[in-house]
Design goal:
With 113 residues, the chain is an alpha+beta fold. The chain is built from three helices and seven strands; from the N terminus they run ββββααβββα. It has helices at 44-53, 55-61, 97-109, and strands spanning 6-7, 10-11, 17-24, 31-37, 65-68, 80-86, 93-95. Strands 1, 2, 3, 4, 5, 6 and 7 form a seven-stranded mixed β-sheet that branches. Strand 2 and strand 3 (17-24) form a beta hairpin.
Length: 113
């Protein structure tokens, strides 16, 4: 199953943006997940800061939401720290893009069941 990604940039001020993407449900077209890219997060506190800055958007969309740090290394095996922040906050995990995409595909597949 291919995941369609819709860019969802958030402008915090005239100078700063947080990159994020809404993942739509392939059946209904409604938002099924939100990914927030924490380009400058270096630790759990940094990931939490991005979640705090995006709080209003997270609550408005009310879909499973992850904050994703830059990968540690290069290539498909470079893992990133990932923090699930909504609907229930979970501990940070370290996943490769393939591992995260597999998990995301399962969640999206169950969206309209």
């Amino acid at each position: 199953m291919a995941v369609i990604i819709i860019p969802y940039p958030i402008i915090l001020s005239g100078y700063e943006k947080i990159a994020s993407k809404i993942i739509p449900c392939p059946k209904s077209g409604r938002p099924a997940a939100l990914l927030i890219f924490a380009d400058y997060a270096e630790d759990v506190a940094g990931l939490s800061d991005y979640a705090r800055l995006m709080y209003r958007n997270i609550i408005e969309l009310d879909v499973p939401t992850w904050v994703i740090a830059p990968p540690e290394g290069t290539g498909r095996n470079a893992a990133s720290n990932i923090l699930k922040v909504h609907p229930k906050r979970e501990p940070v995990c370290k996943l490769t893009p393939d591992e995260f995409n597999q998990m995301l595909e399962r969640i999206i597949a169950e969206h309209c069941i």
